[in-house]
Amino acid sequence: MTALAFQRTADPYRDTDVIDARAPRVNQTVVGTVALVAFLTGWWPLLTLLAAQLAIGLTFGRRYCLPCLFYFEVIQPRIGEGRLEDSRPPRFANIVGAIFLGAATVAHVVGLTAVGWGLGLIVAALALLAATTGLCVGCEMYRIGARLRGIRAGGLRRIDADDVSVQLVDDLVVEFTHPLCTDCRSLEHELRAQGRVVVAIDISRRPDLARKYGIAVVPTAVAIAADGTVRSRIA
Description:
Elements: E1 18-20, H1 22-41, H2 45-60, H3 66-79, E2 84-86, H4 88-109, H5 113-133, H6 137-152, E3 172-177, H7 182-193, E4 198-202, H8 207-212, E5 220-224, E6 230-233
Parallel strand pairs: 3-4
Antiparallel strand pairs: 1-2, 3-5, 5-6
Helix pairs in contact: 1-2, 1-3, 1-5, 2-4, 4-5, 4-6
């Protein structure tokens, strides 16, 4: 694929609420490999550099994340844009990684070498696991936490009629989506193919409803009864 033919659905530096699903795996590969090299060579300042890089990227954006730049400027134009997903789970995983690597640095500075290497190896193992298998433990932690926060806040138990664009009927599906979310589009097409009536609420246009219903991850979809009561969670 040539650079001239390449077109993005989402600008990686502007549309930051979604991310190409392959970008976090590149970042995980770099973090895991460098952390492992640090352990094998005994040069723990590499852990400090990783922590600093993660913190800088999280604070100032993807333009300041070197693995992100490498993916979006070198790899993505050559292989094309991958599946777009909610960027919050991998961002949370990066926060966890930065905390562990920062703690590893502190441990080395105060002389707790075993603790420092233990934390560094945890980061290396989890990052390489995510890079090779797609199983991102930090992302799963975010999703579990999001569900727990939703349960404590009452969760999605009822959808108010004023918040949807059609009359409420039995088995109506209300899906909270984002226009750049690949999984959102796939889920909506799948449900419509099953003959389900779907009302999509774009959280980029209606952040007030995202806050009202505690939507932490998209897509979130529920089937409701004619009175607005949630009958089941679909996604």
